[in-house]
Specification:
Layout (H helix, E strand, L loop, with lengths): L1 E6 L11 E8 L13 H4 L6 E7 L15 H15 L4 E2 L21 E5 L7 E5 L13 E4 L10 E2 L6 H9 L12 H22 L2 E2 L11 H19 L3 H31 L5 H10 L15 H12 L3
Parallel strand pairs: 2-3
Antiparallel strand pairs: 1-2, 3-5, 4-5, 6-7, 8-9
Helix pairs in contact: 5-6
């Protein structure tokens, strides 16, 4: 059994834990109790750190390999070991049915021997468990576990300038008096005066503007590359409006095609990633995005404006005189 500790002065992956312990295990069967070379108590931990246990457990369990036919030895050893791990509780990361051992002997069938467990605090940080790496000339394939910090902090609120009340702000600006300019301005004094005046004016406008907070699920496909392409497109568009020459117009069209092509590519990539990592909960969200809103199931009644008129219209329609 080999343990590796990763320490950090701050919380790891946005969690309050400051250390991550990775334990690599090679488990053998024994003929006497506890029938395992490493007791489960040595793998579990109640200390305040993230704990990941992985390696060759030599266990065959229907939870990891539903299609396998278990022997009596597997039925006696594996379920009790995994059930005890789930009672701690430790979570299993392996994708059911994904083989991790391909024996060189063609008589033996592929099997699942590499398992990965983690304590309760680590599963929300695990992004994926995959066997996409090439073979290393061993009967075991390497497994990749990707840890990804969750989004635990919402973006700060920003002023919603579109909802700013212009009549109110005009009255506030009428009574606003800027600081007097220095009598003998120098470079530093003028810069300080401008910074103070700009801060006062910005704070005044921000305090009267309604704030908005972006949802963390809005435009998940947006990136810094799209932001730079958007700025370049609007720059060429403004230049083309000021000077409508053929050169400026061609630059504007080229930047526009590049910008919208990058948006389409980012949306397609995000949609592919969403479908590849879909869970039981996100699958319904993807289906709703594909089919859109359900059609209105109750017809409109233009001649009925209140519940009494709706009831009267339905009465005459279902039971005509």
């Amino acid at each position: 059994m080999l343990s590796v500790h990763v320490l950090s002065p701050e919380g790891l992956f946005g969690s309050p834990h400051r250390s991550l312990r990775v334990t690599s295990v090679y488990l053998l069967h024994t003929n006497c109790p506890p029938y395992r070379s490493i007791p489960l108590q040595r793998l579990s931990s109640s200390l305040p750190y993230l704990h990941l246990v992985l390696g060759d457990f030599n266990l065959h369990h229907p939870l990891a390999d539903p299609c396998s036919s278990l022997s009596k030895r597997d039925i006696d050893i594996s379920p009790s070991y995994l059930d005890a791990a789930f009672d701690i509780p430790y979570h299993l990361f392996n994708t059911p049915g994904i083989y991790t051992r391909f024996p060189f002997d063609t008589v033996l069938r592929p099997s699942i021997l590499d398992l990965a467990f983690a304590d309760t605090a680590l599963p929300p940080l695990v992004s994926s468990w995959d066997t996409a790496l090439p073979s290393t000339s061993s009967d075991h394939v390497p497994c990749v576990i990707t840890l990804k910090p969750p989004l635990i902090m919402l973006p700060p609120p920003t002023p919603h300038w579109a909802l700013l009340d212009l009549h109110t702000i005009e009255k506030v600006l009428d009574v606003f008096t800027p600081l007097p300019c220095p009598a003998r301005p120098t470079l530093s004094s003028l810069s300080r005066w401008f910074d103070i005046s700009s801060t006062r004016l910005t704070s005044l406008l921000t305090s009267h503007a309604p704030s908005k907070r972006l949802c963390p699920r809005s435009k998940l496909w947006w990136s810094s590359l799209l932001l730079s392409l958007r700025k370049a497109y609007h720059k060429f568009a403004r230049t083309s409006r000021l000077n409508s020459s053929l050169f400026n117009w061609s630059n504007m069209q080229s930047s526009r095609r590049t910008y919208f092509k990058a948006i389409a590519s980012a949306k397609k990539t995000h949609w592919s990633d969403l479908l590849s990592s879909a869970t039981l909960h996100s699958l319904w969200t993807a289906k709703r995005l594909v089919f859109g809103r359900l059609p209105q199931r109750f017809p409109d009644l233009p001649e009925a404006s209140d519940p009494a008129e709706v009831a009267e219209t339905l009465l005459h329609h279902l039971f005509p005189p």
